[in-house]
Amino acid sequence: QGVSSAQLGQRVAVLDFVEPSAKGTRWGLGGTCVNVGCIPKKLMHQAALLGTAVKDAKKYGWQIPGPVSHDWATMAGAVQNHVRSLNWGHRVQLQDKKVKYLNLKGSLADEHTVKGLSKAGKEVFLTAKNIVIATGGRPKYPTNIPGAMEHGFTTGLHSDVALECAGFLTGIGLDTTVMVRSIALRGFDQQMAGLVTDYMEAYGTRFAWKSVPKKVEKLPSGALQVTWVDGQTGSEARDTYDSVLWAVGRAPETKALGLDRLNVQLNNATGKIVVGADESTSVPNIFAFGDISEGRPELTPTAIKAGKLLARRLAGQSTELMNYDNVPTTVFTPLEYGCVGLSEEEAERRHGKDGIEVFHAFYKPLEFTVAERDASQCYIKVICERGADQKILGLHFTGPNAGEVTQGFSMGLQCGATYSHLLQTVGIHPTCAEEVVKVGITKRSGLDAAVTGC
């Protein structure tokens, strides 16, 4: 947003400061996504996919000498080097666009003044016509569990990232267990969530369902012993692990911003800033966007888009608001899951069971055939309004390159695509994406949804 505002002729200062994590970790310019989120996660997911590709390669005639192993240090070093290059790129971009970058921890002194505090304790005050808050959130620990903070570390996100991490750890050959308190992928379509976890279990990831961790203890050997309660039987169980990773969400970075002094309205339950459709807060010249804002998707591209649109409005160049409907996303699990629009549960809640039509198909990616890989969880679901137009309400896809497949179809949903539009679209053969435009069996019919032929 800062760069966008500068490009529109605004005078801009950006305050960016990273408090050390509970384990003392710091990172560079670029926020969560670049440093400890999307980018390193996707690269590690790619490392796991390459491991699967090596196994598949033998079926395609490649002669692989001896057992293949993975070296964590090599991967971690390469990922960190790439992240550092992005940090540097962001710094250069700010300089090129004449944005004043300050490595200071910011808080509000008054509605037009920001106080910046350096690591050495020096205070700097800046005044501005408008102030924009985009501080995101920081990882939460389950502090009610003894040993959680002392012996564990955290992704700071929810079950989607937990499954992504478990998936790439399994993929590079590490013994991995996921403990699920209630359901996997809360907020996502639950049929699709089941397909994702079914595939992961077959892939080698273990799951402890309906289980609640009770304590973490470090044994003399250095191993971590986790004790949990099995929610289905009520009995206690325990096992030992090398590492414990928590994925219980993030807390918004609002407490130290001085928002209470200015009566910036927060949601008492979440601690997030209450914003209007134009990202405005209860104080007219203070705005907020991204993960810090109540009710917004916690997704980097959504925040980037919202920030750019806000920059244009503040510069008087536009009145366009961010459209938070039909935001696509992908979960980068071993079998990727991409979706846009409503889940089947949400569509049914809004329109009623008789008000929707669900078209679906089980398909087999061509890449899986020669490799003799199980494709029983490769699935497509298109949820439509039931009626003359059959407007598409949601699209869900599990399979290879799910993000690439979903991205294109998301534009169709933004344009109000109907099931008829889908059928009028010519597929690219042979691809997984073409199966989306061929989907023709409804759940209501009860017919076999397995795709046959090439």
Give your account of this protein's structure.
This protein is α+β, with helices and mostly antiparallel strands. The protein folds into 3 domains: 202 residues, FAD/NAD(P)-binding domain, CATH 3.50.50; 101 residues, FAD/NAD(P)-binding domain (3-Layer(bba) Sandwich), CATH 3.50.50; 110 residues, Enolase-like, domain 1. It has 13 helices and 22 strands. It has a 6-stranded antiparallel beta sheet, sandwiched between helices. A 3-stranded antiparallel beta sheet has the order 3-4-5, with no helix packed on it. Strands 11-12-13 form a 3-stranded antiparallel beta sheet, with no helix packed on it. The protein starts with a helix and ends in a 12-residue tail after the last strand.
What key phrases describe this protein's structure?
single chain, 454 residues, alpha+beta, FAD/NAD(P)-binding domain, Enolase-like, domain 1, 3 domains, six-stranded antiparallel sheet, three-stranded antiparallel sheet, 13 helices, 22 strands, NADP, flavoprotein
